[in-house]
Each structure stands twice: as C-alpha cells, then as structure tokens.
Amino acid sequence: AIRAAMIIQNWYRGYSTRLKARQRYALTIFQSIEYADEQGQMQLSNFFSFMLENYTKAHEEEPELITRLFGSNLQYKDREDYVKMIDVPDSYNGPRLQFPLTFTDIDLLLEGFKQQK
Length: 117
Description:
It contains four helices and no strands.
C-alpha cells in the first residue's frame, strides 16, 4: 500500500511540475508576443513622427516642392508625368526601370533590393 501511495505521489508531483512548466512557457511566449507587438507599434509611431517632422521641415524650406508633390493639380497627370518628376542622379547604380514593368524589370528590382542598391 505504501509503494502504491509513493507511485501516486511521484506521478502527481511529476504532473504538477509539467503543468507549472507549461504555464511558465505559455506566459513567456505570451510576453514575447506582447512585447513584439508593442515594439512594432513603437516603430510605426517613430516612423510617422519622423515623416511628420521631415514633411514640416521640407514644407518650410521648399514649399514649392511640397506643392508640386502633393498639390491638387497632380491628380490629373498620368504616370509618365510622375516619372519625369523624379530626378535620378548619374551616380545611381541600381536598377533602371521602364514602365510598364516586365518580369525582367521585376527580377532586376528584386536583385537590387537584395544587394541593397
């Protein structure tokens, strides 16, 4: 009878220990997910703050550029007009795209991203 009681006690202690370990791991995973979500929100907030600060600075320094980029007259232009507005320096060595995009252009673009060009 004592041996059976010891077996039951050992089984119960092992089960209790496994249950506590599962609870601890579940809490750790939950906290990791929670912190990752908070980090993502912080990064997004920092990005928007950065964009707002730089938009304000650009608007103060070059108001005609902002008007040109975000002005209401741009909504009537086609894609070619937008492409012509972008100045690409001669020192740029990344992929040069032609519109409409082809599969070759997309492959060049992906390779450029991989090589950080």
